[in-house]
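> call design_seq(struct)
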């Protein structure tokens, strides 16, 4: 009888342990927002030359921007919800994949409910060979609420320690898509 009670207690502990492991997995999302904030802080305190390139329907314009303006241009990234927070993590599914041809680990987050503003968040990491792993880029597809009947999609790409790009696609019923791309790079 005593052995049965011990066995039941052990089984209960194992089931509780597995529940905690599942919860820990949900809370282990990559902290994209914190990572981008650290990148922005690095540029804010640097002496980099910052270049802005804008393309509207295939016509490019290039200019320099002041370091003080950098955060304004990075606002689309800084306004992202932090999926690593419990409140958001519950609404997203994480998948991990190793691409041997690229030698990269790809961590993807997709919403369980397709009406969420973040439609995809993807982090690409290069495994370190005897050194720390390196985040290479972050890709985010975001739906933006529009006042009219148009659909606005923002495709965000952050290339670590190098540049970021925001492509805005405006789709209006009965007309051609309008595409604008802004790329900010620093050197």
């Amino acid at each position: 009888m005593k052995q049965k009670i011990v066995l039941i207690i052990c089984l209960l502990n194992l089931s509780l342990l597995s529940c905690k492991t599942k919860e820990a997995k949900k809370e282990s999302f990559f902290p994209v927002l914190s990572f981008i904030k650290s990148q922005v802080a690095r540029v804010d305190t640097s002496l980099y030359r910052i270049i802005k390139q804008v393309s509207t329907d295939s016509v490019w314009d290039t200019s320099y921007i002041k370091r003080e303006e950098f955060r304004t241009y990075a606002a689309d990234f800084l306004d992202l919800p932090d999926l690593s927070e419990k409140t958001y993590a519950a609404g997203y599914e994480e998948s991990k994949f190793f691409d041997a041809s690229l030698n990269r680990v790809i961590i993807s987050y997709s919403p369980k409910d397709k009406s969420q503003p973040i439609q995809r968040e993807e982090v690409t990491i290069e495994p370190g060979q005897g050194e720390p792993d390196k985040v290479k880029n972050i890709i985010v597809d975001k739906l933006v609420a529009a006042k009219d009947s148009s659909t606005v999609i923002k495709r965000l790409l952050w290339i670590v320690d190098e540049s970021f790009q925001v492509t805005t696609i405006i789709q209006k019923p009965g007309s051609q898509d309008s595409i604008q791309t802004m790329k900010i790079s620093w050197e």
